[in-house]
Structure formats: structure tokens, C-alpha cells
Amino acid sequence: MGYKKYLWHLDIPEEENLLEAHYIHSLIDLAGRRIGKRYIKILDIPCGIGRHHKYLREYGFDVYGVDAEEELIQDCLERYNAYKDHYNVMDMRSLPYNNEFDVILNWYTSFGYFTNEENKIVLQNFYKALTKKGILIIDYPSYWSPMINASIHGDKYIELTELKETEKHRFQYKARLYKISNNYNKLTEVDELKMTITIYPPENLKNILIETGFKILYTFWSRSFRQISPEKLSLYNTMRSGIRRIVWLAYKP
Length: 253
What we know:
By secondary structure, this protein is α/β, with parallel strands linked by helices. The protein has 2 domains: 4-141 and 199-251, 3-Layer(aba) Sandwich (Rossmann fold), CATH 3.40.50; 147-198, N-terminal domain of TfIIb (Single Sheet), CATH 2.20.25. It contains 7 helices and 11 strands. It has a 7-stranded mixed β-sheet with strand order 3-2-1-4-5-11-10, sandwiched between helices. The chain has a 4-stranded antiparallel β-sheet with strand order 6-7-8-9. Helix 4 (70-79) links the parallel strand 2 and strand 3. It is globular, with a radius of gyration of 18 Å. It starts with a helix and ends with a strand.
């Protein structure tokens, strides 16, 4: 049995997946109305278990998924048997696509996994993969803080997570998943996840996007339609205003 969906926190209630898909659809519709283009073909990267794909397809989108975790792509292939040619195991740093997708969806803190140079290459690959006037959607924290946390996944698993800041804005993330037995009297470790991730301050991410060639359409506060004014796109202002997440909507001119 695979455990990666728990460690990546993808075991989310289906109602939440539906609501997020509706929000994503609304973002795409908003961008299309402003730019004057109809968007059909989506690349979800990294796609995880494709938790939004059923609903996005019901909206009429042609959805593809890429992830570096083979286990998660296998889950997608089992879930969406009719779309087997739509899923691939790939690294974001080496995408083969060129002018193929109308939308790239980078959801749920899915950027910043590599070195600064490699993270820039990821955005360059996204840019190349998009068609003219194609859009990039990034759902990303405005800041993180060191923490230790315990999460319960249903009644079968418990996860212990530790987040350490090793350099400025760079964090070491470590999560261990334990199986629960004997009414919580016994915990058996079944899997772990370790990674390093950079949480770029809003002003830094904005500059990287612009340097890559993107134009910023909108920045929204915490998966809402409450816009963040350009002067508040800084770490200081987002922390002061309590803005913990930003949804970025950018396009390829």
C-alpha cells in the first residue's frame, strides 16, 4: 500500500476538492475574460493524486498531470483509467513541452523544492510549456515559520512533522507517518518524507516571475477573490496583514 498521499497531505475530503476545483475554474474564467482567450488544456504539476481532475473535466477542461512521485502517478492511472495517456512521471526541472498548454496549475505549495537556479529553470519550463497568452496559477505561502506538529489521518495513521529554517526563507521539512494499532497503544513507522523548500517572500517571487517573462494579472488573498494591492506584495506587509497564502495569476504575453 502507498502512503505518499498522506505524507503530501492529499487525503482531503472530496467536498474540499470540489470547492477548490470550482475556485480554480473561476480563476481560469476570470483570466480568460480579461485576456480574451478561451482556455482548455491544463497541465497540473505536480499533480499528486489528481484530486481536482474529475471536477475540472466536468467543466470541460482537458487535464494532464505530471508528478515526480511514481506512486502518486500510479494512483492517478487507477483513478482515471480512461486518461492513461494524460499522466507521466517527470521532474519539473526537465519538462519536454513547448507551447502545448493553455493553463499550468501549480497548486498547494508546489514551488521552491530546488536550488534558486533550478527553481528559476522550473518557471522557465512553465513559460515554454504555455501557449501564447497562456496562464500560470500558483498557490503559495507568503511565509512559513518553524514548527513541530502532529496530524491524524482518519483513524489509521498519525503523522509527526518538523519544520526547521536552515537558511533565510529556506526550510527543512521532515515528516514521519505511523500506523496506529491497539487503540493508540502502538505506533509503527511506515514511511517518511524529507525535503528542503524555499518559501520566497512575495516581492522575490514577483521579481522571478517577471524576470522569466510573465505578466502578473492578479494576486489574491488566501484562495479568495480579495485582491492584494501591489504595495502590499512584500513579506513585511503580508505578515502584518495576516496574509499567509497568496494565489498568483500570471500570463505569458
